Every structure is written in C-alpha cells, then in structure tokens.
C-alpha cells in the first residue's frame, strides 16, 4: 500500500509575502531601500553607477517597455521570474548595507563594478575592443599554432582574431603578473592547438575554429578592459590623495508612519538594518550581525580617508589606460601605480640586477666571511 506524505513548508523567521498585493508592496519597499543605500556609498561615481544600475534592473521587469520610435513593446515575463528577482533584490540590499557599514569585500566589489573591473560595465568597455577583433577567416587557413593566414578564398563562420589594441593589452597584462588580478592568470597571446588528435590524425579544421573561439572567450573574460582617460585620471587622484575624500554621507532618519499605516511583520526586516552603523572603538572589535545566519561574525571597518585611499589604490592597480603613441607608432598601455609600487613590481622579462644575491649561498643562507 502506498503512503502519500504531504510536505509542509518549514517555518521561517522572515515571513515572505504570499499575495500579489504583498509582492507589489515589497517590491516598492525594496526599490526605495536599494536606492537609499546607493546614496550612502562613499564614492560619488559608485553612487551614480549603482543608482542607475538598480533603476535599470527594476525597469527590466516591467511588463511594458516604451521605445522612442514606435508603439510600446510588451515583454513576456515567466511566472517564477518576479519571485527570483525579489530574492536577488533582498541579497543586493544586504550586500549594499554591508558595503556601507565598512565590510571590505563588499565595498571593494562595489568599486570594481563601478570602474568596470567586474560586472556589466566591464563587459561594455571590452565590447568596443572585441568588435575590432572579429574577422571572416576561412577554416582552411587556420594553422596549427592558432594563427589565421590572409588567404580569404572562401567564407565560413566568423573566427575571432586579436586586434592591435587587444594584443597590446594582452601582452601588457601578462607582463604584470597574477598578483594584482583575480582568477587564473593570462599566459598565452595565442592558443596552442595540437597538430594531431588523440587518434593520431590531423586536427580537424572545425575543431581548430571551435578551439580558437573558446580560447578567445576565456581570454576576454580575464582581460582587464581599459578605463577612459578622464575616469583613469580621477581614480589616480583619489588614490594618491590629490582629490580629498568628501567623507561618509550622513544617514537620513527613518520616516515615521501613523499607527494605521505601520508595516506588517513580513516587511519589518527591510528597514531593520537601515540605521547609523555602530562605530567600532578598536580595530579588533567584532559585532554579531543578526539575519539569516545569526552566528556569523563580521569585522566592519570605520570608513576613513586612509582606508578609502587604500581601496581606490587596490582598484586602480587593475585599471589600464590605452593610448596611441605617435612616436613609437603603436599602442601604449599604462597601468595604475601609486607611489613606490612601481619599484615593487618584478618584471620577469628584464634581467636581474647584478649583485642581487651577493653574500648568499645556493641554499639561501648568509655566507660567513
């Protein structure tokens, strides 16, 4: 005999809305809370970018998308798509709150999103260079080393090829090393395609093209896009201290509501953390953040001018600048460096200075006189 067991939903401390009215009200509260947190970010460029990013993400889920020329276009939205979007919005709200409270990983990621090191803006900056690196090359002209010859006797699918700008940027990033970048380092300027496959037969042309496309996509994900000159110079001045920091944005007091319009328990968690952060009396002080994981301990930092210069310097090191040199007749890549950091970067292509290891034996021990 079969036994049917009804699965009851587990109770949750934060009650979630279940009706369409509750979803609509929570959406408005989340939207206002996210925009409020964007105004508290310690960087003016981050405030503008995150504000526009939040507005753009919420407008993407509107059923009607208005166009300049033509009638309004309706966008089909799946049934579970708004619920997933609300869940992502809750996570984003907590993420911005942690960044404004002085948590370094979250604040660093917000700055990297603002200056195009990660996220959508980074892909937009790289899209301009990627468009120049696509060529209609025939598959039969792809050599075993991954290079594409100039024999264009037939037309096939587009095979990506590095332009002069991307090639100069790729060579420069490889020389910088992997210490300042996240993820796997870049080591090759062209893919290495084997001459034969596992069966000992010549590598097929279509597999060579697919190999090049895969290598090109992976390289573009790891390559740091160049920052515009105006933003690059402003970030340099912020990191060096030439442009003083304006200080933290003062928090606004929470609005008061009447007894009849008090928010229900389902939305009380949205404004639970929207208050002035507790200033730590020492750098070793730790606080317990209440939320889904009450036992999770965090160590927020007080936002000071020195701390912000360190954060801007960390992001500035990942920002290249691409300029055309009329004297050299080639593209020149300049990476962000502040102070004596240029002396600490080791270039493997240059020979080591003479006498660097004088007085030390092969085991690294100091020789006795």
Quick structural gist:
With 369 residues, the chain is mainly alpha-helical. The protein is built from ten helices and eight strands.
Model description:
The structure is a single chain. With 369 residues, the protein is mostly helical. The longest helix is centred in the first third of the chain and has 20 residues, at 81-100. α3 (81-100) crosses α4. Mean pLDDT is 74; it is low at 1-17, 133-142, 148-155, 256-296 and 341-349. The strands form 4 sheets. Strands 1-2 form a two-stranded antiparallel sheet. Strands 3-4 form a two-stranded antiparallel ribbon. Strands 5-6 form a two-stranded antiparallel sheet. A hairpin with a 4-residue loop joins β7 (320-325) and β8. The chain contains 10 helices and 8 strands. The relative contact order is 0.12.
Topology readout:
Layout: H1 20-38, H2 44-59, E1 64-65, E2 73-74, H3 81-100, H4 104-114, H5 119-132, E3 134-135, E4 159-160, H6 164-176, H7 205-222, H8 229-240, E5 287-288, E6 297-298, H9 305-316, E7 320-325, E8 330-335, H10 341-344
Antiparallel strand pairs: 1-2, 3-4, 5-6, 7-8
List keywords for this structure.
369 residues, mainly alpha, two-stranded antiparallel ribbon, globular, disordered N terminus
Biggest sheet, spatial arrangement of strands: 1-2
Output mean pLDDT. 74
- Give the beta-strand count: 8
Given the helix and strand composition, which structural class is it? mainly alpha
Rg measurement, Å: 27 Å
Poorly predicted runs are 1-17, 133-142, 148-155, 256-296, 341-349
Instruction: Give the N-terminus to C-terminus distance in angstroms.
Output: 91 Å
Shape by Cα distribution: globular
Summarize the biggest pleated sheet. 2 strands, antiparallel
Helix content percent band: 25-40%
Q: How many helical elements?
A: 10
Beta-strand residue fraction: 5-15%
Oligomeric nature of the chains:
single chain
Instruction: Name the helix and strand elements from N-terminus to C-terminus, one letter apiece.
Output: HHEEHHHEEHHHEEHEEH
């Amino acid at each position: 005999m079969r036994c049917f067991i009804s699965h009851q939903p587990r109770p949750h401390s934060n009650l979630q809305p279940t009706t369409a009215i509750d979803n609509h009200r929570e959406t408005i509260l989340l939207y206002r809370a996210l925009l409020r947190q964007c105004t508290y970010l310690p960087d003016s460029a981050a405030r503008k970018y995150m504000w526009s990013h939040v507005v753009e993400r919420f407008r993407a889920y509107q059923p009607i998308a208005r166009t300049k020329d033509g009638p309004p276009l309706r966008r089909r939205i799946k049934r579970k798509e708004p619920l997933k979007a609300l869940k992502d919005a809750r996570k984003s709200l907590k993420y911005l709150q942690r960044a404004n409270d002085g948590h370094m990983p979250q604040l660093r990621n917000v700055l990297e999103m603002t200056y195009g090191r990660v996220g959508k803006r980074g892909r937009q900056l790289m899209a301009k260079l990627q468009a120049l690196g696509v060529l209609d090359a025939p598959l039969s002209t792809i050599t075993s080393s991954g290079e594409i010859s100039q024999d264009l006797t037939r037309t096939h699918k587009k095979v990506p090829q590095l332009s002069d700008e991307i090639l100069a940027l790729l060579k420069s990033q490889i020389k910088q090393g992997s210490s300042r970048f996240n993820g796997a380092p870049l080591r090759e300027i062209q893919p290495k395609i084997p001459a034969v496959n596992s069966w000992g037969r010549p590598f097929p042309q279509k597999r060579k093209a697919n190999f090049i496309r895969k290598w090109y996509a992976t390289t573009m994900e790891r390559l740091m896009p160049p920052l515009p000159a105006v933003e690059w110079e402003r970030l340099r001045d912020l990191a060096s201290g030439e442009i003083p920091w304006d200080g933290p944005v003062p928090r606004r007091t929470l609005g008061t509501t009447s007894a009849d319009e008090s928010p229900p328990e389902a939305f009380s968690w949205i404004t639970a953390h929207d208050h002035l952060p507790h200033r730590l009396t020492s750098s070793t002080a730790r606080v317990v953040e209440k939320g889904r994981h009450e036992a999770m301990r965090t160590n927020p930092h007080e936002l000071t001018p020195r701390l912000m210069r360190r954060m801007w310097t960390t992001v500035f090191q990942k920002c290249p600048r691409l300029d055309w040199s009329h004297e050299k007749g080639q593209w020149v890549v300049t990476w962000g460096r502040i102070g004596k950091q240029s002396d600490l970067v080791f270039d493997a292509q240059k020979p080591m200075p003479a006498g660097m290891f004088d007085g030390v034996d092969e085991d690294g021990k100091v020789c006795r006189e």
